[in-house]
């Protein structure tokens, strides 16, 4: 039977994650992703995906040390990043720079050390290229900062506040992995040929670059900017719904109820209520929008998706829009490498069929 885009077709078995769209559940290796985001750090959840268990203290310390060691850019890598065309977008820079790592050391079969090395480098590549393009000073990694704090420091040159760090960390934990999406599938297809991890990550980044998969939530930013203050939320949203306009950041193709990632992010932001006006505005806008959506579209069960709060967090950090999808990539790289490692363990090359519908009588 032909299914356009392979929708609903089971192409592999996995122990990495599970998505229940009807119940609004996202599971990482048996653990509720929402609970992980609320109770664990980025490094601990990355460890869970890579090693299939939550770490004890010594194990997470070792992972943190390796991430810190591997995130330092070599002079040669910096030179390569600067040599890329100035009219190359950040996702293309990531794709090309990661591909330059593909020396003989990165041969089949992929290893955990390789996965950690690539994951550590991605935030540094983003920050270095960002400052190069802006003509500003790149901030070398600080060894006492964790993965998320250091990423923010490299971008801004300032030690981030606890509220901002926790918000971005929750977002990056909740976007580490999301089943056999287009980019994860792309990585597994490449790996199934017994190609190397660098090639598989290049495939995944190229897939994430597409606006149908990893596009920046600019529509949500426009909505929040238009509302600007809590008092305007009801008026602006009511006008949009009256005109039949779509509210960006609401509804999801997979989740038929609350997006668990959005719920977790909101809970995290509510813990820091009063510490950041942008984040407080987003929580208020969601409350107003959900109420009005039920009024205008009863029974549709339209709730915020992860892009809504992602936009709010990026806005509060004052990240340029061009950094949204690369930041998404800086978290999802952990999930992609985990998929490749799993593919390598039980490898069969992907070889689907295509149904010919052209002429036969020429």
TrEMBL record:
Gene3D superfamilies listed in its UniProt record: Citrate Synthase, domain 1 (1.10.580.10), Cytochrome P450-Terp, domain 2 (1.10.230.10)
Alphabetically ordered keywords of this record: Transferase
List of catalytic residues: 252, 307
Reaction(s) this enzyme catalyzes, per UniProt: oxaloacetate + acetyl-CoA + H2O = citrate + CoA + H(+)
SUPFAM superfamilies: Citrate synthase
InterPro entries with a match to the protein in the record: Citrate_synth-like_lrg_a-sub, Citrate_synth-like_sm_a-sub, Citrate_synthase, Citrate_synthase_AS, Citrate_synthase_bac-typ, Citrate_synthase_sf
GO cellular component: cytosol
Gene Ontology BP annotations: carbohydrate metabolic process; tricarboxylic acid cycle
Pfam families: Citrate_synt
CDD domains for the chain: BsCS-I_like
Source taxon at top rank: Bacteria
Gene Ontology MF annotations: citrate synthase activity
Pathway info: Carbohydrate metabolism; tricarboxylic acid cycle
Similarity section: Belongs to the citrate synthase family.
Protein name as catalogued: Citrate synthase
Source organism phylogeny: Bacteria, Bacillati, Bacillota, Bacilli, Bacillales
């Amino acid at each position: 039977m032909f299914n356009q885009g392979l929708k609903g077709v089971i192409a592999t078995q996995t122990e990495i994650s599970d998505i229940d769209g009807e119940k609004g559940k996202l599971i990482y290796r048996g653990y509720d992703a929402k609970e992980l985001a609320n109770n664990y750090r980025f490094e601990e959840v990355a460890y869970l995906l890579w090693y299939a268990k939550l770490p004890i203290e010594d194990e997470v310390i070792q992972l943190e040390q390796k991430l810190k060691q591997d995130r330092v850019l070599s002079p040669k890598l910096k030179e390569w990043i600067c040599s890329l065309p100035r009219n190359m977008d950040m996702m293309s820079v990531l794709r090309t720079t990661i591909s330059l790592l593909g020396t003989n050391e990165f041969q089949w079969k992929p290893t955990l050390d390789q996965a950690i090395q690539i994951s550590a480098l991605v935030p540094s590549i983003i920050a270095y290229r960002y400052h190069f393009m802006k003509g500003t000073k790149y901030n070398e990694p600080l060894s006492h900062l964790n993965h998320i704090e250091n990423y923010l420091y490299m971008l801004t040159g300032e030690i981030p506040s606890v509220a901002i760090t926790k918000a971005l960390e929750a977002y990056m934990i909740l976007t580490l992995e999301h089943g056999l999406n287009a980019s994860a599938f792309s990585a597994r297809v490449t790996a199934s040929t017994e190609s190397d991890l660098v090639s598989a990550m290049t495939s995944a980044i190229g897939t994430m670059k597409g606006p149908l998969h990893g596009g920046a939530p600019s529509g949500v930013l426009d909505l929040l900017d238009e509302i600007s203050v809590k008092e305007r939320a009801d008026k602006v949203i009511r006008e949009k719904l009256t005109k039949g306009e779509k509210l960006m950041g609401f509804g999801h193709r997979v989740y038929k109820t609350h997006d668990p990632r959005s719920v977790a992010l909101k809970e995290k932001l509510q813990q820091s209520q009063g510490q950041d006006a942008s984040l407080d505005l987003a929580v208020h806008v969601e409350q107003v929008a959900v109420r009005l959506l039920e009024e205008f579209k009863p029974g549709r069960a339209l709730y915020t998706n992860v892009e809504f709060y992602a936009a709010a967090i990026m806005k509060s950090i004052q990240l340029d829009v061009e950094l949204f999808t690369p930041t998404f990539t800086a978290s999802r790289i952990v999930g992609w490498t985990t998929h490749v490692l799993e593919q390598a363990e039980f490898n069969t090359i992907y070889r689907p069929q295509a149904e010919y519908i052209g002429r036969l009588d020429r």
